[in-house]
Amino acid sequence: MRTVADYLAETLRNLGVTHVFGIIGKSICPALLKMVDYGLEFIPGRHEASSGFAASGYALQTGRLGVAFATSGPGGTNLLTAAAHAKANNLPVLFLTGHQSIQELGIPQCQDSSSYLADLAEMFRPATLFSKLVERGDHFGTILNHALSIALGPNKGPVHLCLPFDVQTEQLPICRIVIPEPEPLLSISSLNRILPLLHQAERPLIIAGKGVTRAGAHEELKQLAETFNIPVVTTPGGKGAITWDHPLYHGPCGVGGFPNGDEMLNQSDLYIVLGSRLSDMTLCNLKPHNHPAQLIQIDTDPTFVGKILQSQTLHITGDIKDNLQYLLSTLPSSLTSASTGTFESFEYQTPLPDLPHLSLAAVLDQMSELLPYDHKLFVDDGSHGFHAVQRYKVKKPGSFIFDAYFACMGNAIGMAIGAKAASPEETVVCITGDGCFMMLGTEINTAVCKDLPVIFIVVNNKQLDMALKGMEKTTGRIDGTLFEVPMDAVKFAESLGAKAFRAETLPQFSSALEAALELNQVAVIELLTDRDEIPPTAHRVVNLD
């Protein structure tokens, strides 16, 4: 006879999970200790939210299940933001929280997770695709099978199980767990309707979202664009779906985009949308009278398909990579052979700003030249994120990770750590801001303690820059956006055990990044940037009148 915790740990190992992330506590102790016994490496975080982000970074890097856990009560509620972030980014993460023993229900308990105080199973329901309290050991197998089939199914995303202490230690004679097998999900009848729409369109446009990277469909995107000679723009989160210098790439659109990308949106009569919800961050400059006549949208999630634009919509359900591979394999040979021609290169960029102090745009414009080809760049939310969307030159498709949709500050710090744990040989870099760093920057110590040499670039302009610039433009006020006592990121990083550098000029940054790459240990580079630099977010405004 083995315990529920045994079966859980064995299942995770059989799924190929190698690392789990969280903060230990009494109510989750049996499950966590069994994971360690079964060979999973435990990465203890400094805040549960960061551990959840790390599990998401691990899932993104590996394509496998990420695992984050916390104790009951406030440990669990601290995971909620990370769960919602994983849901917004379609990342398969299993969130595990503890719970008082079922036999003790109704007795006031420290860090209560029951319906008498903080019902975690209920709280996680809207932030995940599935959330359940496991009330009996003999129900565990059925519930875990269901949770895994959802997390790793066609519409990937997070799930949550709340495990009472006594259920974790309950012994079972048998517990059958079925490891989900990936299955292609194709919309063949709908795919057959694409070619006539492409032939009818005069100005088609591919809008590549972050779903392209989630599906690993970069080559298929490139082949589709080249076969039909269709220009490509990327959403803020879709940055890196195609290389920055591909002749058919016309740059990012929306917030953080260049004017040309928005002009393309307003001039096209057919959108081919790959893995994007078409949020306000993408369509902020699209005029209502310029909605395209036709829309083709490939997405596993139908929630927003056909509901954002005033366009005739063809929804292709399922995985982007599987559907594009099928579509491309069915094209006439005469059409595919015609795609071997040359394409005229297009210059979509604009001049860099001329500032008295260090320009973040100038740093990002050169940064990819300083990094090895095999790297992953995680970008935090804030004005620095949209500077990166506009200026960073992605050479390796899929290497740029940015969430402009749920947009929670500090997520990139944990995600970079989780990705590095999954791929220790790959160079992992995180761009974050001083506001984000003051929220979750203590995770630097997690990376130091576990020898996960991520390079953290902290943009320090001593203010909540995106909020400040937006409020100042739209309301004339900047309440709560200035740090009266600004942080010293170098001292903070050194106190957590990291190697730290400070850069106030572009040559200083280049030298610091070169040194950090050679060190192969956790490094923090503080960028003291010009506080007056305008982020590329000005066209998304608020009117309080």
TrEMBL record:
Keywords: Thiamine pyrophosphate. Residues 382-526 form the Thiamine pyrophosphate enzyme TPP-binding domain. PROSITE patterns: TPP_ENZYMES (PS00187). Residues 192-327 form the Thiamine pyrophosphate enzyme central domain. InterPro entries: DHS-like_NAD/FAD-binding_dom, THDP-binding, Thiamin_PyroP_enz_cen_dom, Thiamin_PyroP_enz_TPP-bd_dom, TPP-bd_CS, TPP_enz, TPP_enzyme_TPP-bd. Residues 2-107 form the Thiamine pyrophosphate enzyme N-terminal TPP-binding domain. Belongs to the TPP enzyme family. This is Thiamine pyrophosphate-binding protein. It comes from Paenibacillus cucumis.
